[in-house]
TrEMBL record:
One of its GO terms (molecular function) is oxidoreductase activity. Pfam families: adh_short_C2. This is NAD(P)-dependent dehydrogenase, short-chain alcohol dehydrogenase family. It comes from the Bacteria. Belongs to the short-chain dehydrogenases/reductases (SDR) family. Coiled coil: none annotated. SUPFAM superfamilies: NAD(P)-binding Rossmann-fold domains.
Amino acid sequence: MNRLEGKVAFVTGAGGGVGSAVCQRFLDEGARVVAVDIDIDKATASVKDALAEGRAIALKCDVSQPDEVEAAIAQAVATFGSLNVLCSPHGGSSTRDGRVTEAALEEFWRVIGVDLFGTLLVSRFGIPHLEEAGGGSVINFASIVGLMAISERDFYTAAKGGIISSTRSIAAGYAATGIRVNAIAPGLTLSPRVAARASTERSKKLQDRHLLGVLQPVDIAEMAVYLASDESKRVTGQVLTVDSGITIT
């Protein structure tokens, strides 16, 4: 349908299940894509068919490192001339998380550094280029853990709560420049990483609460397409849940 024709999208975590699905759907809709990941091979695989066509590039970047994010943004603009969409589906929880009295403090700083700080860095260095382009869309990634109580993920919850709050404040601050800032809050999504833990008792209980079935990465990518497109031109400062109904149960 070419809903993103003429747009340039910067996508972090491009080598992951959701990030890869976002890259593919953006390409399907006519965007040019900058696929960014700490694992360059995975980033390249996500956009391999578009590389030869000049519709995509793949970049290695640790989103928790300001210099690397700034350099990746600069390379994106140098390649395609502008930026219109910043999409940040990087990060994720790990089994090292837990209750606040028990989880290793190193895990707190890891998830804050990657999920929260990394998301803020994409906006810090990317938003000026959206302003130069006359506006655009920032798509952050929160989680249902930022909206409801899910025990034993206390550090990941803190990071996602921070993303929700900062999404709203950044949206208010940049609306006058034509930039809209929203967050997607996915439910349990069967990316390869999550699928590897899907058979645990905890995961099965969570899956059972998804009224329309557990999500696939493409389900999240479809929401990202909407937020990247002009169809969402009056939507900003919102957290859009794609959660198969779990937050209403």
